[in-house]
Amino acid sequence: MDKIFDLIKKEEKQQKELVYLIPSENFISDNVKAALGSCLSNKYAEGYVGKRYYQGNKIIDEIENLCQERALKTFGLDENIWGVNVQPHSGCEANLAVYNALLEPGDKIMSMYLPDGGHLSHGWQTEKRKITLVSKIYEVEFYKVNFKTQVFDYDEIKRQAQKFKPKLIISGGTAYPREIDYEKMEQIAKEVGAYYLADVSHEAGLIAAGVLNGPFKFADVVTMTTHKTLRGPRGAMIFAKEDLVDSINKSVFPGLQGGPHIHTIAALAVALGESQTKEFKKYARQVVKNAQVLAKVLIDEGLKIISGGTDKHLVLIDVGLGNGKRVAEKLEDNGIIVNANTIPFEQSSPFKPSGIRIGTPAMTTRGWKEDDFEKIGKKISELI
Ligand SMILES: Cc1ncc(COP(=O)(O)O)c(C=O)c1O
Question: Which member of 116, 128, 223, 370 has the lowest number of beta carbons within 10 Å of its beta carbon?
Answer without folding.
Answer: 128
